[in-house]
Design a protein that fits this description.
By secondary structure, this protein is mostly helical. The protein has 15 helices and no strands. The longest helix has 23 residues. GO terms for molecular function: geranylgeranyl diphosphate synthase activity; squalene synthase [NAD(P)H] activity.
Length: 344
């Protein structure tokens, strides 16, 4: 695809991105009603990029439409090249780790993993809001982790995964939401981490069915839980204690994210982020309401609850996504408790 694209192709890409978002990300789409104009379209374009990257991983080595079969590592390498292509006119925003984008270009006949119109909309979004390259490349690194890891030994390993597959999405969105203050970066990443950890706690059964356990094995052992317990869907005192601990950790990340909301200056941006965080955070409340049983049903936030949370965002915004009672550095994410037994 050429560096420039017609306005018609870009507009088509934004329309396609909206459809992708509405179909695959109902909570994100719901929260996007609080954004307007170009900011909303840009949010859809970024989501569509992330979704298509997920599709690459889900397809494995199967052929995608219009493409010959190839291994997933090659597909992700092509994705890296296509991202680098976007930054040819923006070398100052290119990844410092990977070097000049001019040295990382795809061959002329290399197929693109993206629909041309969606990629045109993504390029337009990146150029318009001057979004740095590194978060996009880090997201691809997160997808690469799924090529080689189906178990995580420690929280540090899982935290890196959460950052790469979700925290970086917050970094992509920050310029779109009207912020150039560097102090907003860490809270933005923390919201993504919180949401990804919420997904992991909600989807234990589904991940097991795919042969994956994201819950850190060190922490499972510390609470006396085995993978056989997970496969049996055993909800006992040990599991409840484990889930309380993980939910406390996730809420600490949500609270840290809330501390950065005030840096967002785009119209509707603060409310959108509070609503998105509160909708996802409400999944944790539903897990608690199910007595921590994430095996027999999928925790979720109902449409009625989403409407209640929307009203809260407008009437009591700080209650929708509460900040920690202390300043950000004094609100640590809980560490593995001592005295719980198990191998450390």
């Amino acid at each position: 695809m050429s560096v420039t694209a017609s306005s018609a192709l870009i507009a088509q890409g934004y329309r396609r991105a909206r459809v992708v978002t509405r179909h695959h990300a109902k909570s994100f789409f719901f929260a996007s009603y609080l954004l307007f104009g170009q900011r909303k379209k840009a949010a859809f374009a970024l989501y569509a990029f992330c979704r298509r990257l997920d599709d690459l991983v889900d397809a494995g080595e199967s052929a995608l439409p219009g493409e010959a079969p190839m291994d997933l590592a090659t597909r992700l390498a092509r994705a890296r090249e296509r991202v680098a292509e976007v930054y040819l006119p923006l070398p100052e925003l290119a990844s410092k780790e990977l070097g000049p984008p001019s040295a990382r270009q795809p061959s002329a006949d290399a197929p693109s993993p993206w629909d041309p119109s969606e990629f045109a909309a993504l390029r337009h979004t990146i150029h318009h809001y001057r979004i740095p390259e590194q978060p996009f490349q880090d997201l691809i690194s997160g997808m690469e982790m799924d090529l080689t890891k189906v178990r995580y030994d420690t929280w540090e390993e899982l935290d890196l995964y959460c950052y790469r597959v979700a925290g970086v999405v917050g970094l992509m969105l920050t310029p779109v939401l009207g912020c150039v203050d560097a102090r907003a970066v860490e809270p933005a990443a923390d919201l993504g981490r919180a949401m990804q950890l919420t997904n992991i706690l909600r989807d234990v059964r589904e991940d097991l069915e795919r042969g994956r356990v994201y819950l850190p094995s060190e922490e499972l052992r510390a609470f006396g839980i085995t993978e056989d317990d997970l496969r049996a869907g055993r909800v006992d005192a040990k599991w409840r204690d484990f889930m309380r601990f993980q939910i406390q950790r996730a809420r600490a990340y949500y609270a840290r994210a809330a501390a950065g909301v005030h840096y967002l200056t785009g119209f509707g941006s603060q409310r959108m982020v509070r609503l998105m965080g509160s909708i996802y955070g409400d999944i944790l409340r539903d897990i608690e309401a199910r007595d921590y049983d994430v095996f027999s049903g999928r925790a979720h936030t109902t449409t009625g609850r989403k409407l209640e949370l929307t009203a809260t965002v407008f009437l009591r915004p700080r209650a929708a996504l509460p900040e920690a009672p202390l300043a950000l550095p004094s609100a640590p994410v809980p560490l593995l408790p001592t005295g719980t037994g198990g191998s450390r």
